[in-house]
Amino acid sequence: MFQNQEEVNSYLEGTCDTEGVLLGVINRETYLKETMPHMLSGHYQGRVLSMISKMLAPKKILEIGTFTGYATLCLAEGLDKEGTLHTIDINEEQEERVLGYFERSEYASQIKYHIGDAINVIPTIEGEFDLVFIDADKKRNLIYYEMLIDRIPTGGVILLDNVLWKGKVFESNPDNQTRQVLELNATLAKDNRVEKLILPIRDGLFVLRKK
């Protein structure tokens, strides 16, 4: 339908709300300092995450895969005033810089930044999560999902990123990583515990609402 995806992305960004000053700084510095800056959620997807969070007004958010903190701060925009956002990342080399971003934000006191393997960290965080964003090691997405689905209340939402996998899910002879994404999507599509759909935003965002 669209011949020029960059043109579409530019139009979408031009018709949604602007990113805040700090988000702009994170965006620029990520592209200057990171070897894989495409992992950043970016302007338009960031506004989508913010909108979903604001509609839910969650008291507790869990993010798996902090990277440079861009999506974290977008999700935090919808937090209840007394809410908390737990974000987990395994890369301790980024910790100082990412903490610096969080400390410059208005949500500094509400963000709990965990460094470590998410499989080990998740059990140490008590309670239910109103909103979960999974954007980390794709091979473990089903593991994270099964660890968390029973900790989501009715009406709570789980978001999984990169479920269209750069369009590779449509290939006739998918590689091993793509087959894992296809398995994830097929499993989620059959899960009757949730209502679900994929938004074709950026690299594909699976949205699942707990029944």
From TrEMBL:
Q: Does the keyword Transferase apply?
A: yes
Q: Which UniProt keywords apply?
A: Methyltransferase, S-adenosyl-L-methionine, Transferase
Gene Ontology biological process terms from the UniProt entry? methylation
Q: Which Pfam families match?
A: Methyltransf_3
Highest taxon in the source lineage: Bacteria
**GO MF, one example:** S-adenosylmethionine-dependent methyltransferase activity
Name under which the protein is recorded: Putative O-methyltransferase YrrM
Organism, by scientific name, is: Sphingobacterium yanglingense
